[in-house]
């Protein structure tokens, strides 16, 4: 769950504002991390014309169908299962993604990566306590994994346990210093407790990292907008996106700013 940050794009919604996760369901961590953190490029069938991060809803659905066909032909292919489940989540089919990951884990019960992805699927389906348990099962004390730490943080944030969540993010940063998805998740954790100054500090750190993707900057745009600096927020939201994506994100940002109360609206989408 990068872990990425754990706020996801849902059709025309702002990348940063749709829901919490990570990094992490995030979870690279409302990771960052982005929704594609487990997409294995080499296992995606040839013929996809562009990266999934640049696809619209129709293209994502078609990609999910294509990868689903590959998985159906070889259900023992762990990577195909992971890719299929991630794309299903990106198209809002969380229950179906969970079902796929249940089968992957049955076939690979001791695989850390499969367990982590299963936890992400559980969290996306709203099974937060179960997701936290699954992620904990995936951990190995002898080989601590920053992605799992960030994923735990994203789940704990959704459970309202912000202090524990931030401990996990900082443990992740000890293992992976300055990771943008973890910093973004940490920043969004402060959004949920209305500490926008701290949130902006961490999100600016995240956005300054070489590996930061557009989802990190969209999270930053959301936080800047929530502080009333709308022109600056729109400028950030338009970076590195196509005009269509940028217009959709800015439209969503404006709608977020006009909702009363904004905080209730934000948390209801977590």
UniProtKB/TrEMBL annotation:
Domain of life: Bacteria
UniProt-listed Pfam families: TPR_16 (PF13432), TPR_19 (PF14559)
Signal peptide: 1-29
Keywords carried by this UniProt record: Signal
InterPro entries: TPR-like_helical_dom_sf (IPR011990), TPR_rpt (IPR019734), UCP035836 (IPR014596)
PANTHER family, per the entry: CELL DIVISION CYCLE 16,23,27 (PTHR12558), CELL DIVISION CYCLE PROTEIN 27 HOMOLOG (PTHR12558:SF13)
Protein's name in the database: Flp pilus assembly protein TadD
Gene source species: Rhizobium aquaticum
